[in-house]
Specification:
The protein is mostly helical and 299 residues long. It is 74% helix and 0% strand. It starts with a helix and ends in a 9-residue tail after the last helix.
Length: 299
């Protein structure tokens, strides 16, 4: 390591080694003093340790809301995406977290991410636990990217991209399921004819049905809307999820009375979800049994 690199390394290490309380008070002052350009320059180095140390520093500084516009405008985001491709585990975690912080910046008119971030984010989401905090941040970024045509194409073209989102709907936390179903909904709303069958092929229905009962309010609404889009019936004849719930609630009222209707309706919907999941699994097993041996992935 040269003298200049060594000096930068020492300065950044000092920068992120304050005690937490002292660093919180000084985050804005550090950025105001001009720390961001040298850190961005450091992200361009070939030395992986230096790049990841800079990413850790940017992560810490970007946690302060007043710093986000300056960091977002600095060109740091594309360099953080590069770490997603080739960094260490900790480096990739820091890069995703920093990008997640920056994505919440309202003062920037241009998006901080482009479609090049989709493949590494999907790969990381595929490999991590779907209910982890890391998955929550990764799916939040993917939902943002799913709002652009380039992002939608990148999700579709990535190996197992839609399947990874479907698996997150099934196994994720309340936060990650909300973001994952949001990304799938963005795809289907952008072009139902193009994405409907791709989503259905990955077995999305059981997880979406369960989400209408167990998800956050926003996730439930998104799941209902997506289920309506996935149905293979004309729009004018389509039975919406909200209508189905009203029918179930009316039945529950007649059976157990108004006082217990909500509880009974929820139980009936859960039974319907379970039955749908069983039927879906049966169909999957039947398709697998009829496939040629070369098409069946060994376990």
């Amino acid at each position: 390591m040269g003298i200049e690199q060594s000096t930068i390394y020492s300065s950044v290490h000092f920068c992120i080694s304050f005690t937490p309380s002292l660093f919180i008070r000084n985050k804005v002052k550090i950025v105001t003093a001009g720390a961001i350009p040298p850190l961005v320059d450091l992200l361009k180095f070939q030395n992986g340790s230096l790049r990841e140390l800079a990413a850790a520093a940017i992560l810490t500084l970007s946690a302060a809301a007043p710093n986000k516009p300056a960091i977002a405008a600095s060109g740091a985001a594309p360099l953080l995406v590069e770490i997603l491709h080739s960094g260490s585990v900790q480096g990739r975690v820091d890069a995703v977290t920093a990008l997640h912080y920056l994505s919440t910046c309202r003062e920037t008119s241009n998006p901080i991410l482009d479609a090049t971030a989709v493949p590494p984010l999907l790969k990381l989401l595929k490999e991590c636990k779907k209910y982890s905090k890391f998955a929550e941040k990764a799916t939040a970024l993917l939902e943002i990217l799913s709002n652009s045509e380039e992002g939608q194409t990148a999700i579709t073209n990535s190996d197992g991209g839609i399947l990874t989102l479907v698996e997150t709907v099934e196994d994720g936390s309340l936060v990650s399921t909300e973001h994952a179903v949001g990304a799938l909904l963005s795809l289907c709303q952008s072009c139902r004819d193009k994405y409907r069958q791709l989503i259905l092929k990955e077995g999305a229905i059981p997880g979406l049905l369960r989400l209408t009962v167990e998800g956050t309010y926003e996730a439930q609404e998104r799941a209902r809307t997506l289920l309506d889009l996935l149905r293979d019936t004309p729009q004018e004849k389509r039975l919406s999820s909200s209508v189905l719930e009203k029918i179930v609630y009316d039945i529950a009222t007649r059976v157990d009375g108004a006082d217990k209707a909500a509880e009974t309706a929820k139980r009936l919907l859960q039974d319907m979800v379970q039955r749908s999941m069983e039927l879906s699994m049966t169909r999957i097993q039947q398709r697998a049994a009829s496939s040629t041996p070369s098409k069946i992935t060994s376990t």
